[in-house]
């Protein structure tokens, strides 16, 4: 039981480590770990001294219920907005509101797969397309956004229109989700919409030259580290005392002097 | 446990690279025409939690740390600073100078030029600006906003050449070569030469230099952030290590 607790806490610390290592990743959304106990079990005593009733099958007696440990039930993503910082770079784009950028993230068997991200630290890739830092092309309403050498003179207005030299060339494809639980985290800050729940954004505005920070809160994570270590320690103590009890049973009870 | 250790190691490595990048920017605070670099991060692989020995939820995935997705260059213009020296040139607007060294062509926005013995305009690292040739007796050099170079000598004013500016169909094709020089990968786009002050090209300013395009305050803030994040990751690593120690001490 205590061992399962240690096991779960280990997974928790893995998650906290991941959150902390992403404390400066733009648009990163931290994970929350939900630990639950296993379903309760019924303990039944077989053939105790005060249980001699032959009518009961196998001389059993119900004692009560117990749980046999903890398990990791769920890792959910916390979608609160991170802090905003001004960078002045034209390729840094911040989404004010609940929306997500749509990017083309080809997968095996699905070359046109669309994923969602809030990491707006974009670049213009080798072929002149607007792309995420990880190299996935950002989608506009009519497909990938070709900017060429326009890094210095492209502007994004608050409704997501992409302007080059004052001429509107494209509009960013932004998506909102009324149920964020349909989003699954993938590599490279991408979220996969497994249930097809993407809706056209209506409450999101766009700001160029700003970047959303990670929503990892140092204080929370530190508290998390302490709680988890202490709980881990307590579980370790439990195992040790159980070991001592067993040792007593084996070495002292029934020993001949 | 190993995962927590490797995630925090990942984080520390990433922050170290960020500090390296920031240090590189900051050391170039006086380099004319320097273009800032920034390390951009993205989350590393997310994979299902392998929950051996106890039933877990197959949909549960967790991350493995952070990765440096790229070190990006930003080409936004820097401030133009007056130096008063007649061979300092700044481009106000778009366009790069093209200089040649040993048959190789390079592009730069660092306009600190000098005159060599044979009358060429050269950069401090020995690259020659093409198309300009001065008479040895020239004593006053004038460069107009559209790049026309004239020199005044004992024989009067004479034309010495024309400075061309270069643009690219794709800025991502520019590669850093060190010494403020950039080279262009012709497979990724085309070089478009043009005359200064013509539409789309910047004007040339004599007696000015372009300052680096980063803000000192922003870089310092980033430096503090990187240092804190590094310490933060180190703390996680220690915690993970302590926990592992406890597991090792289960049996005394």
Automatic annotation (TrEMBL), chain A:
Which SUPFAM superfamilies does this chain map to? Flagellar hook protein flgE
UniProt keyword Translocase, yes or no? no
* Location within or outside the cell: Bacterial flagellum basal body
Family according to the record: Belongs to the flagella basal body rod proteins family.
Ranges of residues in domain Flagellar basal-body/hook protein C-terminal: 207-251
Q: Which residues form the Flagellar hook protein FlgE/F/G-like D1 domain?
A: 96-164
One Pfam family matching this protein: LlgE_F_G_D1
* Gene Ontology BP terms: bacterial-type flagellum-dependent swarming motility
Principal localization? other
List the NCBIfam families.
FlgEFG_subfam
**InterPro entries for the chain:** Flagellar_FlgE/F/G, Flg_bb/hook_C_dom, FlgE/F/G-like, LlgE_F_G-like_D1
List where the protein spans the membrane: none
Gene Ontology cellular-component terms listed: bacterial-type flagellum basal body
Alphabetically ordered keywords of this record: Bacterial flagellum, Cell projection, Cilium, Flagellum
The protein in question is named Flagellar hook-basal body protein
UniProtKB/TrEMBL annotation, chain B:
Q: Which family does it belong to?
A: Belongs to the flagella basal body rod proteins family.
Q: Give the main location.
A: other
Keyword Calcium set for record: no
Sequence ranges assigned to domain Flagellar hook protein FlgE/F/G-like D1 in this UniProt record: 90-151
- State its location(s): Bacterial flagellum basal body
An example of a Pfam family matching this protein is Flg_bb_rod
Flagellar basal-body/hook protein C-terminal domain location, by residue? 205-250
- What protein name does the entry list? Flagellar hook-basal body complex protein
Flagellar basal body rod protein N-terminal domain location is 11-35
User: Mind telling me which InterPro entries this protein's record contains?
Assistant: Flag_bb_rod_N, Flagellar_FlgE/F/G, Flg_bb/hook_C_dom, FlgE/F/G-like, LlgE_F_G-like_D1
Q: Which SUPFAM superfamilies match?
A: Flagellar hook protein flgE
**Which Gene Ontology cellular-component terms appear in the entry?**
bacterial-type flagellum basal body
Query: What is a biological process (GO) this protein takes part in?
Result: bacterial-type flagellum-dependent swarming motility
Q: Where is the signal peptide?
A: none
Could you tell me the keywords of this UniProt record? Bacterial flagellum, Cell projection, Cilium, Flagellum
């Amino acid at each position: 039981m205590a061992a399962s607790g240690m096991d779960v806490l280990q997974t928790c610390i893995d998650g906290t480590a991941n959150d902390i290592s992403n404390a400066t990743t733009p648009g990163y959304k931290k994970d929350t770990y939900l630990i639950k106990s296993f379903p309760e079990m019924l303990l039944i005593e077989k053939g105790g001294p005060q249980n001699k009733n032959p009518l009961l099958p196998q001389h059993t007696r119900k004692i009560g219920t117990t749980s046999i440990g903890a398990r990791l039930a769920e890792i959910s993503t916390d979608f609160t907005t991170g802090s905003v910082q001004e960078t002045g770079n034209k390729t840094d784009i911040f989404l004010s509101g609940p929306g997500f950028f749509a990017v083309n993230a080809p997968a095996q068997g699905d070359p046109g797969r669309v994923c969602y991200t809030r990491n707006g630290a974009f670049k213009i890739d080798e072929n002149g397309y607007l792309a995420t830092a990880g190299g996935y092309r950002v989608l506009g309403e009519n497909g990938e956004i070709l900017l060429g050498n326009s890094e210095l003179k492209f502007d994004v207005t608050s409704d997501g229109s992409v302007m080059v030299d004052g001429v509107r060339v494209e509009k960013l494809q932004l998506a909102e989700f009324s149920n964020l639980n349909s989003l699954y985290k993938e590599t490279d800050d991408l979220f996969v919409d497994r249930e097809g729940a993407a809706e056209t954004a209506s409450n999101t505005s766009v700001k160029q030259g700003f970047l959303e920070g990670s929503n990892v809160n140092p204080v929370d994570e530190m508290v998390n580290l302490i709680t988890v270590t202490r709980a881990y320690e307590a579980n370790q103590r439990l195992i040790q005392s159980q070991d001592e009890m067993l040792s007593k049973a084996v070495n002292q009870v029934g020993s001949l002097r | 446990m190993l995962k927590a250790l490797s995630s925090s190691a990942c984080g520390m490595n990433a922050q170290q690279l960020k500090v390296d990048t920031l240090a590189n920017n900051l050391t170039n605070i006086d380099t004319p025409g320097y273009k800032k670099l920034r390390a951009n991060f993205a989350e590393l692989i997310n994979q299902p939690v392998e929950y051996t020995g106890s039933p877990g939820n197959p949909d549960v995935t967790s991350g493995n740390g952070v990765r440096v997705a790229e070190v990006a260059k930003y080409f936004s213009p820097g401030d133009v600073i007056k130096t008063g020296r007649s061979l300092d040139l700044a481009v106000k607007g778009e366009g790069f100078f093209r200089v040649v060294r040993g048959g190789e062509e390079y592009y730069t926005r660092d306009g600190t030029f000098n005159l060599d013995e044979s009358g060429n305009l050269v950069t401090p690292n020995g690259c020659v600006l093409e198309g300009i040739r001065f008479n040895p007796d020239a004593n006053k050099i004038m460069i107009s906003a559209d790049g026309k170079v004239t020199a005044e000598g004992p024989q009067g004013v004479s034309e010495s050449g024309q400075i061309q500016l270069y643009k690219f169909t794709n800025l991502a094709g520019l590669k850093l070569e060190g010494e403020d020089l950039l080279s262009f990968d012709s497979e990724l786009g085309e070089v478009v030469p043009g005359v200064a002050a013509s539409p789309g090209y910047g004007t040339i300013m004599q007696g000015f230099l372009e300052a680096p395009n980063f803000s000192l305050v922003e870089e310092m803030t980033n430096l503090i952030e990187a240092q804190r994040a590094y310490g933060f990751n180190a703390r996680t690593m220690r915690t993970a290590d302590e926990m592992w120690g406890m597991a090792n001490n289960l049996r005394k």
